[in-house]
Design a protein that fits this description.
The chain has six helices and no strands. It has 116 residues and is mostly helical. The radius of gyration is 16 Å and the shape is elongated.
């Protein structure tokens, strides 16, 4: 869950980099650029989903294995596919992706109960 909170903190600045630059905010998006921060965040989340799938696969309960592997696999696929559609120059596109990350986090709050 820490990875997801960290990614949320980084991606919240993605839609308004110009405003952050204007007011002298030194966010990662301003320092590195949107083009580098988006794939960094997506890859961090994909690694976290992979780790959750491996952790779920080691469960002694079959239902936990199934739900963890399939659930996190679906979330990873959604994340990866949607990240390819983001137009970094469009506020609605970047904000929509940021809101998708929140939705994926809410689903993770359900799936985390199957990691034992």
């Amino acid at each position: 869950m820490s990875v997801f909170a960290f990614v949320n903190g980084l991606l919240k600045d993605l839609p308004d980099v110009e405003g952050d630059k204007k007011f002298g905010m030194k966010t990662l998006c301003v320092l590195l650029g949107k083009e580098k921060v988006l794939p960094l965040c997506v890859n961090m989340m994909l690694v976290a989903y992979g780790g959750a799938m491996i952790s779920g696969a080691s469960s002694s309960f079959m239902i936990n294995k199934i739900v963890s592997i399939i659930g996190h696999g679906i979330l990873a696929l959604i994340l990866w596919l949607q990240s390819k559609k983001v137009d970094l120059d469009n506020f609605e596109s970047t904000f929509g992706f940021y809101m998708l990350i929140w939705k994926l986090n809410y689903v993770e709050y359900i799936l985390i109960h199957f990691l034992r």
